[in-house]
TrEMBL record:
Keyword Flavoprotein belongs to the record: yes
Top-rank taxon, per record: Bacteria
Protein name according to UniProt: FAD-binding oxidoreductase
Lineage of source species: Bacteria, Bacillati, Cyanobacteriota, Cyanophyceae, Leptolyngbyales
Keywords tagged on the record: FAD, Flavoprotein
Gene source species: Romeriopsis navalis LEGE 11480
Length: 450
């Protein structure tokens, strides 16, 4: 980095907004990596030299050209709500903060064209009055940006109906700026979008996205309690499989997880297992029948109008569950697990009984291969790195798939295999390896082998 002429770089930015104040640079170089005790040690001292905040695609191109000229690493940032260090600059350089590119350019029935820095909640504010909304969102819906979600996310609220971001049809098109001597703007459509989706910004800077929309429903919020965890889990599976009930969220918590939710202490009886649900208002009556079938008790119910004010139950699900638990006990961390083909929940039950309170069961039902499937973001009482690894290995030995949240490497946190299409695209659009360096294992191995 000593050879970089930062004064010349800042002059090349012309009138593009940038930040050099150390406290702001530190804050904008971080995300929620501290959820992981492993990542805490690895990433605590990583930060950029400068934060650059473009307002247009043309400004992005100017920044990229200046970075290439000076050989400056560039790491793209949305709102920094990720948990794996996706937007943390391992090799310094600049963070390209996309939050000022925050417009919904246009929308029509079923589709919207948006800039990467627009918040998910703001997309819905524009589209919902016309009867449309985004298909899925993380629990950080109020603060996350669409570019960050596409670049680093995988699913969320809405996935019980629409699957995961990587499923064909959940992203229509992207515009991408390359990091070459002469930066180009490429438009990717159809399956080509997955060359850059969920790639942590390692192989393209997204400047525009075309996303599908879903019909907007009046979403009611419901909490159901159960005396037995497996009864709660089977209820969740049945609701996920109930095609006639319109739902957006099916979350199941084992006791003692609800005890970490201060907002619901007067609602959820102690030592209860429970389900947090978002269903369409017209689905409430058949939902009540399903609850009775599984001997549950509805302890909380809000209409869509009531749910639009105050506490939102989705902010206690997905990764927010870990956030609330860590506020009470900072020694808690988490796993991310898929139980493929486990529609009888035998593997879920085995893990629940095998680990007990050491790995507290938290299920999120999502649509995988056309059927509701249990995934988990279990809360884990952390002791040592060795014990954490042993827990991960045991899950994998029994047929569960772990999406490891304790690594910043793109492949190791996901399917554990190289995405050749993403690697080939990076070779084409980032020949100097300046985009978010250190995060794509395939790129590092390519050079090591060479």
């Amino acid at each position: 980095m000593s050879s970089i002429d930062w004064l010349a770089f800042s002059r090349a930015l012309d009138k593009i907004q940038f930040i050099e104040k150390p406290k702001q640079v530190k804050r904008l170089s971080q995300d929620y990596y501290h959820f992981s005790p492993i990542l805490q040690d690895l990433l605590a001292d990583k930060q950029a030299k400068m934060i650059v905040q473009p307002k247009s695609e043309a400004e992005v191109i100017t920044v990229v050209a200046a970075c290439v000229q000076q050989n400056i690493p560039l790491t793209v940032r949305g709102a920094g709500t990720g948990n794996y260090g996706q937007c943390i600059p391992l090799e310094g350089g600049i963070v390209l903060d996309m939050s000022l590119m925050n417009k919904v350019d246009w929308f029509a029935p079923g589709v919207a064209s948006v800039q990467p820095g627009v918040k998910l909640v703001d997309i819905d504010r524009v589209t919902r009055p016309s009867g449309w909304e985004i298909r899925m969102a993380p629990s950080t819906y109020r603060t996350a940006t669409i570019g960050g979600f596409i670049g680093g996310g995988s699913g969320g609220i809405g996935s019980v109906t629409y699957g995961q971001l990587r499923d064909r049809g959940n992203l229509r098109a992207v515009r991408v700026v390359t990091m070459e001597d002469q930066p180009q703007v490429l438009e990717l459509r159809g399956d080509e979008v997955y060359q850059v989706a969920h790639a942590y910004g390692t192989n393209g800077i997204i400047t525009e996205l075309e996303i599908p929309l879903a019909p907007a429903y009046a979403w009611a919020e419901v909490i159901v309690t159960f005396d037995d965890f497996m009864q709660a889990a089977r209820f969740g599976q049945a609701l996920g499989d109930a095609d006639g009930l319109i739902k957006k969220l099916v979350t199941v918590f084992a006791d003692p997880i609800p005890s970490y939710f201060a907002a619901f202490q007067d609602v959820i009886p102690s030592q209860s297992h429970c389900a947090f649900l978002m269903v369409s208002e017209e689905s409430i009556a058949p939902l009540q029948e399903l609850v009775r079938e599984f001997q549950g008790s509805i302890v909380y119910e809000k209409s869509a109008e009531e749910a639009s004010r105050g506490v939102a139950i989705y902010e206690y699900t997905w990764n927010h569950t870990t956030l609330h638990a860590r506020a009470i006990d900072p020694n808690i961390t988490y796993l991310q697990t898929l139980f493929p083909g486990d529609h009888d929940l035998n593997l879920v039950e085995h893990m629940y009984r095998h680990f007990g309170d050491e790995v507290m069961m938290h299920l999120e039902f999502m649509r995988v291969g056309g059927r509701a499937t249990p995934a988990a973001l279990q809360l884990l009482r952390y002791s040592t790195p060795e014990r954490l690894q042993a827990i991960i290995q045991y899950h994998e030995s029994q047929g569960a798939i772990i999406f490891n949240p304790h690594t910043y490497l793109l492949e190791d946190g996901g399917m554990k295999q190289v995405d050749v299409a993403q690697l080939r695209f990076k070779e084409k659009v980032d020949p100097y390896g300046l985009m978010n360096p250190g995060k794509m294992r395939a790129w590092q191995e390519r050079w090591a082998e060479g």
